[in-house]
Design goal:
about 260 residues, mainly alpha, two-stranded antiparallel sheet, about 70% helix, DUF554 domain-containing protein, DUF554, transmembrane helix, membrane
Length: about 260
Amino acid sequence: MDLSLWAKLNGTLINVATVALGTGLGLALRGRLPERMQTVIMQALGLVTIFIGLSMAGSMNKAGATLQSTALAAQPIVVDGVVIGLVGLVVGGLLGEWWRVEQRLAALGDWLKAKFNGSGRFTEGFVAASLLFCIGPMTLIGSINNGLIGDSQLLIIKAALDGLAAIALASSFGIGVGFSILIILIYQGGVALAAGALATILPNPAVDPRVLIITGVGGLMVVGVGINLLDLTKIRVASLLPALLVAPLFHWLISLL
């Protein structure tokens, strides 16, 4: 199917528009709401984010990999998806710290803050929004569907959710939330444009165990974002991003053995 550029990217562009609109509404509310109300909004968003993350994390239970019979066992050994997710997070986290992913993303936020005369918690809002809007199965599966067959339904649903979240985030963090549209365009739009190649690797992404393990690992990262929004502690979620590549790679290696 030969799709136009608009057909491949319309879901992403709608997502960008809703985040921009949500940011604008959040900024309009920011100066009008007492601090205690802004705190309640952020706590509500944090709790819902944790719930969404935990729901996603359950996908790891369906993503076990089978290690075929070896000299140590006559029968195939099933490696639980949670174990694969744990290895992915640990190894990915170590790689993330080595590559200084957290610092580089924060540095990008600081650069944008200086470039556009941002103030306050600009960088914190940029990082939190970028992670929240781009981690999850709706981003990956929705972008593949949009780029491959022009189906933007999943991304439009995601766009509505992101727009609502942007209102809450921008009311507390400010305009930095709006600059997350750059990450949405690069990542989500990039996946949509590369959907043809991805389709040969993931013919049925909704039930592919590699996507399920990415969803589960990503869900735990979303939980981390929620914990950060609640100010319970500081989880270096960006440093864990390499796990989204390490976990499915580990799953693939086990399946080969």
